[in-house]
Amino acid sequence: MKSKKTLIALAICTPFLLACADKAVNAYEPANGNATSAAANEDDMNTTHTVTAAIGPDSPHAEGAPPPSREPDVIYVPTPEPVVDAMLNLAGVKAGDVLYDLGSGDGRIPIAAAQRFGVRGVGIDINPVRVREANANAETAGVTNLVTFKEADLFEEDISEASVVTLYLLQSLNVKLRPKLLAELKPGTRIVSHAFDMADQWEPEQTQEVDGTRIYLWTVPER
């Protein structure tokens, strides 16, 4: 008799128990969703989103441009404007100087030198797109009478007329370039490099911290 009453009771209560259980499970779903979302947001906040020179729209000057004569030695990364100014100051650029920028990119260093000091500048870059871009920037800045940009290999181009040379290459390339600098440049020519020194091959005379990076100065010695 008791078994029959128990079965009847279970038959009556089971639908209510199942409904309660279903509500209990559903009650946790939003909480779990929020927890997942919060975790995702936390992960996103802890992620460092980097931007490199390889990311971003193509240069508007790329259309119809021929490829470089050989693979460029470095990826183009522009020197920040505060560093440009510091490099020119460290080199002691003055009226009468001739500045050569080896790997000139968009031309900002020769253009800044022309604007600030009225000096003549030459930029050398192996990438024809960068040369186009530099010429366009020079025209916008109104200094085409002072700056020239050449599509050439910086290891082969004659740089002997420079009294100031600026670099933003790599340490290994600076070291490779050192014999050319010493052979072709006049004694007293100032060389300034952004971010990279010349290892143990040539100790810089001066270094300076600027805008989270370092710049280096050398002077070509007497022969």
Could you please describe the fold and organization of this structure?
The chain has 223 residues and is α/β, with parallel strands linked by helices. It folds into two domains: 1-49; 81-219, Vaccinia Virus protein VP39 (Rossmann fold, 3-Layer(aba) Sandwich). Helices cover 42% and strands 17% of the residues. The chain contains five helices and seven strands, in the order ααβαβαββαβββ. The longest helix has 44 residues, at 2-45.
CATH topology call of the largest domain: Rossmann fold
Poorly predicted spans: 1-57
Largest sheet: 7 strands, mixed
* Gyration radius, in Å: 32 Å
Q: Sketch the topology as an H/E string, one letter per element.
A: HHEHEHEEHEEE
Total number of domains: 2
What is the overall number of helices? 5
Count of distinct strands: 7
Task: Just name the CATH architecture of the largest domain.
Answer: 3-Layer(aba) Sandwich
| Side-by-side strand order of the widest sheet | 3-2-1-4-5-7-6
Described by the principal axes of the CA atoms, the overall outline is globular
Based on secondary structure, the structural category is alpha/beta
What is the multimeric organization of the chains shown? single chain
Query: Mean pLDDT score, rounded?
Result: 80
Q: Distance between the terminal alpha carbons, to the nearest Å?
A: 119 Å
CATH class of the largest domain: Alpha Beta
